[in-house]
Batch of 4 targets.
Target 1
Amino acid sequence: MTAPRHVVPSDGCVWVTGASSGIGRAVCLELAKRGWIVAATARRQDELESLSREATGLLGRIIAHPLDITNETAVKQAVLTIEMAHGPIALAFLNAGIAPYIRAPNINMFAVRQVFEVNVMGVFACMAALMPLMATRKLGQIAVTGSVAGYGGLPKSAAYGATKAAIIHACESLKFDCDNLGIKLQLVSPGFVATPLTAQNDFPMPFLMSEDAAAKCVVNGLASKAFEIKFPWQLAYILKFLNLLPYSVYMWIIGKITGVQKG
Ligand SMILES: NC(=O)c1ccc[n+]([C@@H]2O[C@H](COP(=O)([O-])OP(=O)(O)OC[C@H]3O[C@@H](n4cnc5c(N)ncnc54)[C@H](OP(=O)(O)O)[C@@H]3O)[C@@H](O)[C@H]2O)c1
């Protein structure tokens, strides 16, 4: 069996979720620079329209397709609409996400449900709508945004980290099927990137990257053979290493680094 190949602009268009800001927005522009037709989705239509205008003059183009990924019916319809308008979706960057803080003792159940709806159920809805089409064509590439926060528990991210751990697990599991179906599935694991999502963070963010640098890592990674596209590599490897340590050592180090540990 040969590994699924990475796709190129002549194979079809790209679908990006979470395109209205941050990493998704920067990735749309990077892909358009490299000649892709990009179907950009998120809820805020005005931001998508402004992104579309910003791409004027690039080799490719960006077209706004407003979408709330928590609406499964709308996701299915969006996939059909995008394919009708721009041809087969060859590449999907499933990136939309939210990151509310959750801390004990006051667990905000509304926020917990919402983050699972967007970060987990929304991603599954996108894959459910797209994978059968790619499988029929035996061609396609899907990159899903997880996070290094999914490697192990970090303060304030009880729900967010849990959603990203679920995404890591889901991608690891689905990769076995996707390889047989001709679909190249990749996991994108960002560290800290300066976006509206991290603007709320009130703690040090080591190895913080710009949106543009992150977008280049994502788009270059799409052409690589790697299952996981992780950046910055320093933070990813430090966290992977820390997660190999006994819990007592892991908790002590993370508590000290983040300033959460008292005493
Ligand atoms: N920034 C980081 O340091 C970092 C680190 C690790 C992982 N990540 C992950 O990277 C991804 C992008 O994050 P970001 O930092 O670029 O944050 P961001 O700037 O806040 O972007 C989040 C995007 O998700 C979209 N979105 C949220 N809820 C949605 C919904 N229900 N339906 C459709 N789109 C929705 C938002 O658009 P609308 O509001 O217009 O819908 C926005 O475009 C997320 O999955 C995040 O968990 C980020």
Target 2
Amino acid sequence: MGLNYRELGLRVGLEIHRQLDTRTKLFCDCPTEPRTTGRTVEFVRRLREAQSELGEVDPAARFEMRRARTIVYRADLGSVCLVEMDEEPPHELNREALRIALTFAAMVGARPVDEIQVMRKIVIDGSNTTGFQRTCIVAVGGSVRVGSKVVPIQTITLEEDAARLIEQRDGQVVYDLSRLGIPLIEVSTAPVIEDPREAYEVALAIGRLLRATGKVKRGIGTVRQDLNVSIAGSGLVEVKGVQELEDLPRVIEYEVRRLLHLERVRSELRSRGVRAESVSSEKVRDLTHVFSSSRSRLVSNALSKGWRVMGVRLPGFAGLLGGGDVRLGRELSEYARAWGGVEGILHSDELPGYGITQEEVAAVRRELSCGEGDAFVLVLGPERRCLDALGAVIERASLAVEVIPDETRAARPDGTTSYLRPRPGSARMYPETDVPFVRVSRDLLEEVMRSLPRPLEERAEELMRTYGLSRQLAWELIDGEVVEEFLSLVQTGVAPSFIASLLTEVMKDLRRQGVPVENVGVGAVRRYLELVAQGRTAKESARDVLAYLAGHPGSTVEEALKALGLEAPPLDEVERVVDELVREVLPRLSGRDPFGPIMGELMKRYRGRVDGAVLSRVLRERLARAGTSGGSA
Ligand SMILES: [Zn+2]
């Protein structure tokens, strides 16, 4: 990309969230592993006007309130009780979770607080039945070291995980409650990270320390990275929900490009003499009549539903809405979607287009009194939505003249981000009076210090020593969180380094190619390795077999081998072929070692079906029987 991040004044802080593997949830006795009883509960809530007890309304809360919605909660009664349903006050803070957080605090040299006060943090997107998330600071300070850099930790916090969104339809969202209340540890670093790669390294280091406690959950959805990003002169952008560690640099690079683009737009608007007040005084106009006989499918579909076409002028914005993957048009569209619930916007930099003609564009410009330097934005939808959407567009456009706004954004799987809501203000937190203070006693701290976990370096050394793995493979097992699987699979007798690379490199590679490897359970891998150990297929078939199993959930390893033609022939058939080759080749070699040439022939014939080690063993036996030594090695 060639961006000089230090020159740009990039500052990144990380918030690493990780589910703790405790027996019960943070404020009740429900299990943290989902339990299915078949008895379920379902209830409906409406978002209520939430005010903090300090009397102010938070901007993020106001945002959610404008999108009045019905919320449906569902759960299996094996995983929830009255606490998650907000029908019973929370129980005491989970002591097992507290001990884990204190352990991590000790590992990074953080200072535990004397007394833990649980707070309520307003979250009214419906993901909490109470309208807030319970959270408490356990320790402050400490640091992690990455290379020569020391990254200060700001806070170590325990909080409740939210309910899981399972469906989002017009005006209604559905949440599954079983995840609500699972303890999360949140580790926040100071905003001192100066380039995207460094963010990855810091997150990896924190992740390794968390894993070393041995008490964090693993797998998809158990870890989430949030980050705050700014460059010199920009507002603070918070990006939520980066799932994969490897995506962090990409997301940061994208944000920097976005901020730089917005900065360029801002200075261009200023040099054109555009003023924020003149943007915010623009009026929304109903332009439906302009399109009454439009041949645009997009427009005529909308009109047939009784929708309106409404528009607004953006004075001085001509040519500034389009661009590459970062563009002001996209920002405006995200605001229109978030605040108005419309599907998006159409703007003058991309029209004529979408079946909208030059004549229609000219008519719109006339109606909106657009001069040459002016741009316009159109939305399609029911009147109320159009008004809300264009109101948000006007607000965002007038901001573009003055600042790069503080925002909360969501990470998307493609490494870009999208607008989520305004950043919450300080009115967001207030004390949870239903949970008593917890005094962090000297005894508890001493007990934590006495049972600090072994560093992961020792774990890596042990894997290298016991199983002859390379350092890289050992760390890949640890970072990939598949050490347990590895230890159970080495019992099949297949070479440990083969199993390790299967669980790490091969799986990662397949995932990168879009193969849904999460469909392959450890049971299937074990069965495959057993068949390899029995000589019923060769190690070389691994990639194809795993890909097949991923693409055909429910089929067995045996079926995969048959379908792929990778089943080994019966051993006696192999032996017969070896015998034939020995008889044929031996006389032609006049005393030279026959092992290499015959082995080459066998591999050609059986690659991917019969393991090289089996071929070599059979060949040695047969050569010995035929009275030659059968090679060196
Ligand atoms: Zn519960």
Target 3
Amino acid sequence: MIIDIVLREFIQAEHIAIITHIQPDGDAVGSCLALAEILKEIGKDADLFCQDRIPASLSFLAGTDQFKSETAGRMSYDLAIAVDCSDKERMGACAAVFDNAGNTINIDHHISNVFFANINLVDSNAAATGEIIYQLGKARLGKLSRQTAEALYTAISTDTGSFCFSSTTPQSYRIAAELMDCGIDIEHITNMLYKTNRVERMRLLGKALQSLELYENNQIAVLTITQDDLISTGAMESETENIVNYAKDIVGVKVGILLKETADGSVKASFRSNGGVDVGKLAAQFGGGGHRAASGASMQMSVPEAKSELLTAVQTALGEMIQ
Ligand SMILES: [Mn+2]
């Protein structure tokens, strides 16, 4: 069993580095913290690495202050573990720590994973890397500590969109149930993760919703956020995240678009599809990227120009749809 092989490597290693991806999310951070706790219970201290800062929304988890950037910490480990990374590049500057290690393990759930380590524990059926870390902890320790369970619940809840995405499996729920058995406070975690909007963000959301425009018999919804909106509300750039979903979630809408004016007057566009239109292709037409259902592109033009070009492209895509 690959799990036994991985556990054996944990036990044999002396100095362990755990590394996750740039722009870390709940799965990245929660999985790393849980893995570090599991290793501690085995009697191993591990150093945590992430190139970028841990989002404030995750700071309620114990240990988030322990993450180092690549320049800090012991640079030579006998074991480096990449967590939630589909390839080495995802680690950014921290890939150097991985490259310098004597032995390497890759723990991930992305179907695109390229098996870049000596040992690759990759399960694309897992909805989150946290589910795989859970299996490791359970196999070795039986029951997990409350702190570990809290980190893993965060990992799984965030990567499944609160158990709503199609990636959610019966196993995701089973693991969540077992994590509840470890004494975690679901209401507290949910409040910390999802109910911490700053008033500035709510005012920005209000402005964005005011800007709503509908086209093509209400099949295309466009929201716009200008630089003025950001400045007058005091909201941060990062607080525009997820606003595009308000456009997508309108009944009858097939494509939701958010146009964000950047400081230099150009546009960052986000696209969401309810199926039918492949917004990954739409983004690619404008030099961007993403998936069928979610994508984005940077457009070197004004908001009105971007809107008119995008409307033409989406109208064409809607016309090509099998009705
Ligand atoms: Mn993940």
Target 4
Amino acid sequence: MTAIDPRAFRDTVGHYAAGITIIASVHCDEPVGFTCQSFYSVSLDPPLVSFSVKHDSTSYPRIRETGRFAVNVLARPQQELSSQFSRSGADKWAGVRWSRTPKRNPAIDDCLVWLDCTIEDEHPAGDHLIVIGRVEGAGPPERGGGEPLLYFRGGYR
Ligand SMILES: Cc1cc2nc3c(=O)[nH]c(=O)nc-3n(C[C@H](O)[C@H](O)[C@H](O)COP(=O)(O)O)c2cc1C
């Protein structure tokens, strides 16, 4: 079996276009979150979703401690937010408008939709951790409008 070169692997899977989310929680009264493309829905009944997070994420250990998170699905004009939340150590929440979901997670203003989740399970996988979340709620109530922010071949679409 021929092992694929990491760069070639990255370039190849980059042809799979996906939306972009910010996975967020509130830890010790401080909002915490990171940009995440690996989100997907897993099961309808029970309602489960998943994402993969790098082992060296500094945000995820804090999210894990809270046991819950919101998935914020970004809209087309929110490219700057995606970049801001991908910089480890930066003040990711500077200038960001958000409110609390019913489960007290951060709902970022003007995102397409958000999902309120509790952490159901975790599975180590290579240099990432696969996190399974149980969906407890969704919003905003008037969802349905707006275009998505997409990521394809290393660029925003
Ligand atoms: C478009 C895009 C998609 C990303 N998707 C993921 C992802 O699915 N999983 C992940 O762990 N990191 C992903 N990242 C990188 C994280 O956002 C980044 O490593 C994280 O914000 C680091 O901050 P932290 O140390 O606060 O966790 C993505 C970055 C970008 C720009």
